[in-house]
Structures are given as structure tokens and as C-alpha cells.
């Protein structure tokens, strides 16, 4: 099981004591361990959190705006890792509605792409400065129904890596697929996480979003 692999950092309550799981996906050049303080910041009773580690600290080599083929086979391998993690958790008794996804930057892009390709009723999704992948957004890649999944998308405008228009396009696609999306744009914030974004993330976990 990948959840017992050294490439997955863990925090919060043990999985056998948890009723929900938060999956934290790091950005380019970062680490899984570096995401654990964020999980601790958002931790609630009976919440476990897991953070997978990208090989070489990057999920794919080029910009998320590059043609998908330019990021292969790394992109497919990274998406498969998230799918395996999800499948492992399902096998441990965590249905999708008890899984929460949070990613920052490249990790947000990967996580949003994964969720859109496997849309269903998740517990919640938090995309911090990220968007769907590809030179253009190809709606035909995405299947399923989010069935009201709460989604928060936050970003800076401008951002050196993630253009606002791609966040807007991502909001539109996820909404069309049945997600309840709230987006917040922070003028001149830079490529970082705003404290208010964590308030929105906490709201998703607490059911007050």
C-alpha cells in the first residue's frame, strides 16, 4: 500500500482512528514533510492527513500550461500516484465523501487535474494558486459529477506561474461538473498562501463553507 510507503508523510490521528482524511499535495521544489505543518494548522478531531512526495521534488518537468505530452511520462505517473493513494484509502474504509484534497502551486494543478478526471462527491477540494493542466483546457478530458462538492480556489493576480484566466477557466469547468465553487483573487499577493485562504479551507473541513 502506498500509504505505508516512505514517499507518503503522515500526520494527525492514526488512520484507524480517523473518520476523514486530508491529502496535501506539495508544489515544485517542495517536500511532503513541508506540507505537514499546514495539515496541523487545519487539523480537527478525527482527521488524518497524508502528503505524497514527488520524485525529484517535482510532479512534472514543464509548466502546467505546456501541452500535456511535454510533461509525460511524469504527469501520468504522478496522477497514478494520487489514484493509488485514493484507492488505498477506499480499501481502508474511507469513501470519497470523506476525502479532502488540498494542493499548492504545482501540487494544486496536479490535484485539480486528478479530481476533474475522476469527478465524484468528495469531502472538499482546496486549490491554492493552481488550475487545470494543458495548453488549453480540454473539457473532453473530464468526466463525472462532483455532486455539490465544496471547492475553494484562491490565487494572486498577477501570479508569476499561474495566470488568473486559467483559474477562471478551472472555476467554470468545475462548476459545470456540479461542484460548489468559491473563488478568491488576491491582488498583488505573490506566489504564496494568504491566511484567509486557510480560513476557507477550514470552513470546508468544518462543514461551514
From TrEMBL:
Keywords: Hydrolase. One of its GO terms (molecular function) is hydrolase activity. It comes from the Bacteria. Residues 16-203 form the Phospholipase/carboxylesterase/thioesterase domain. InterPro entries: AB_hydrolase_fold (IPR029058), LYPA1-2/EST-like (IPR050565), PLipase/COase/thioEstase (IPR003140). Gene3D superfamilies: alpha/beta hydrolase. It holds the Pfam family Abhydrolase_2. Belongs to the AB hydrolase superfamily. AB hydrolase 2 family. This is Phospholipase/carboxylesterase. It comes from Catalinimonas alkaloidigena.
Amino acid at each position: 500500500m502506498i500509504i505505508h510507503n516512505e514517499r507518503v508523510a503522515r500526520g494527525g490521528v492514526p488512520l484507524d482512528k480517523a473518520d476523514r482524511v486530508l491529502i496535501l499535495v506539495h508544489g515544485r521544489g517542495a517536500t511532503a514533510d513541508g506540507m505537514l505543518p499546514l495539515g496541523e494548522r487545519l487539523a480537527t478531531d478525527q482527521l488524518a492527513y497524508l502528503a505524497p512526495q514527488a520524485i525529484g521534488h517535482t510532479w512534472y518537468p514543464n509548466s502546467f500550461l505546456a501541452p500535456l505530452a511535454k510533461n509525460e511520462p511524469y504527469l501520468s505517473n504522478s496522477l497514478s500516484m494520487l489514484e493509488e493513494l485514493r484507492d488505498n484509502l477506499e480499501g481502508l474504509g474511507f469513501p470519497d465523501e470523506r476525502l479532502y484534497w488540498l494542493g499548492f502551486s504545482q501540487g494544486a494543478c496536479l490535484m485539480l487535474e486528478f479530481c476533474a478526471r475522476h469527478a465524484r462527491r468528495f469531502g472538499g477540494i482546496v486549490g491554492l494558486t493552481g488550475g487545470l493542466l494543458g495548453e488549453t483546457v480540454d473539457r473532453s478530458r473530464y468526466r463525472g459529477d462532483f455532486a455539490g462538492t465544496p471547492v475553494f480556489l484562491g490565487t494572486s493576480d498577477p501570479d508569476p506561474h499561474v495566470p488568473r484566466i486559467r483559474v477562471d477557466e478551472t472555476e467554470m469547468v468545475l462548476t459545470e461538473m456540479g461542484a460548489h465553487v468559491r473563488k478568491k483573487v488576491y491582488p498583488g499577493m505573490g506566489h504564496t498562501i494568504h491566511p484567509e485562504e486557510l480560513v476557507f479551507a477550514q470552513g470546508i473541513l468544518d462543514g461551514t463553507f
